[in-house]
Amino acid sequence: xxxxxxxxxxxxxxxxxxxxxxxxxxxxxxxxxxxxxxxxxxxxxxxxxxxxxxxxxxxxxxxxxxxxxxxxxxxxxxxxxxxxxxxxxxxxxxxxxxxxxxxxxxxxxxxxxxxxxxxxxxxxxxxxxxxxxxxxxxxxxxxxxxxxxxxxxxxxxxxxxxxxxxxxxxxxxxxxxxxxxxxxxxxxxxxxxxxxxxxxxxxxxxxxxxxxxxxxxxxxxxxxxxxxxxxxxxxxxxxxxxxxxxxxxxxxxxxxxxxxxxxxxxxxxxxxxxxxxxxxxxxxxxxxxxxxxxxxxxxxxxxxxxxxxxxxxxxxxxxxxxxxxxxxxxxxxxxxxxxxxxxxxxxxxxx
Length: 351
Ligand SMILES: Cc1cc2nc3c(=O)[nH]c(=O)nc-3n(C[C@H](O)[C@H](O)[C@H](O)COP(=O)(O)OP(=O)(O)OC[C@H]3O[C@@H](n4cnc5c(N)ncnc54)[C@H](O)[C@@H]3O)c2cc1C
Prior knowledge:
The protein is built from 8 helices and 21 strands. By secondary structure, it is α/β, with parallel strands linked by helices. Strands 1, 2, 5, 6, 7, 8 and 20 form a 7-stranded mixed β-sheet that branches. It has a 7-stranded mixed β-sheet with strand order 10-16-11-12-13-14-15. Helix 1 (15-26) packs parallel to helix 3, helix 1 runs parallel beside helix 6 and helix 4 (163-173) crosses helix 5. Bound molecules: flavin-adenine dinucleotide (FAD). Flavin-adenine dinucleotide (FAD) binds at residues 11-17, 34-37, 42-44, 47-48, 53, 55, 87-88, 117-123, 255-257, 287-288, 297-300, 302.
């Protein structure tokens, strides 16, 4: 794949990475943004979409997903390019002050500046931690479903008790040859209506529910053929299987960010509080991923950091350009970039 030059790459599409698009966009700087998750929103979307947030200035209460939806609407005029569902695996300085950025799906970018808005790290699925499982990962042990059609008329086992496990149980049940749901507890953490639907399917004899844990894989040559399940009432069952889905939730991993040569302190990137630049000039860090004296991991703090980082990035990319502060209220150039026509100042004054 050929390498494309882009002005700035943002790593992480959580609330702070999204607002970074906005702050750079106001200054006329274009962005590409990359996230390992398949949708933008970071912790807000992944960990607490329905919870209310009370400390966003000007919004007395705002749902976490609602905040992300609002940020996406706010950054729309700047046409950032989103590369989702792929981890940034490499950030390498090039001669001349540019950077090479590579993702797990083969995107290759050359950029003048990098902003790391990686939060607590890239979210990874919690894995099925049983001996021998590793060799089947991505083949017959899966942590996400890409296409339900691939699993028609197969013996399936789904492990987990949250929304993903229950949603896919209901969605795949009628398509599979057999489906067994394995969950360690009697209670589920999924939408009550989906749990009720699953219980109806069990009652109708269309699937099996086991309370217990998968403890071993059974293979025939190099093919996965069964899963050993230890049930809560002390039985050991052999369940025939073609594909296993483990939906145990996600956990963040600092991962490759720790390998790009920047100074770290307690798993966070050290930055200054003028530019929010890391120890590598041209690489900036905003939001939960950075640290400095007095740092507070709040969305509000990340928004402030993104504003100052944008000015520093502008200076880094265009050192000859004079910088001055403009207000969105009154700046014709900013309003042009935003695609709005501001009210003439005289008219505003007359109100
Ligand atoms: C339950 C809960 C409630 C909260 N309530 C509040 C609140 O009321 N008010 C408040 O201010 N804060 C709250 N927070 C904290 C707030 O959510 C975080 O401060 C905020 O999400 C940080 O935003 P961010 O954009 O820096 O990082 P994140 O939201 O963590 O997003 C980072 C993104 O970067 C991606 N990423 C990381 N590494 C890579 C890589 N190598 N390649 C590709 N992508 C990568 C991740 O996948 C992730 O999507 C709460 C947090 C939790 C868990």
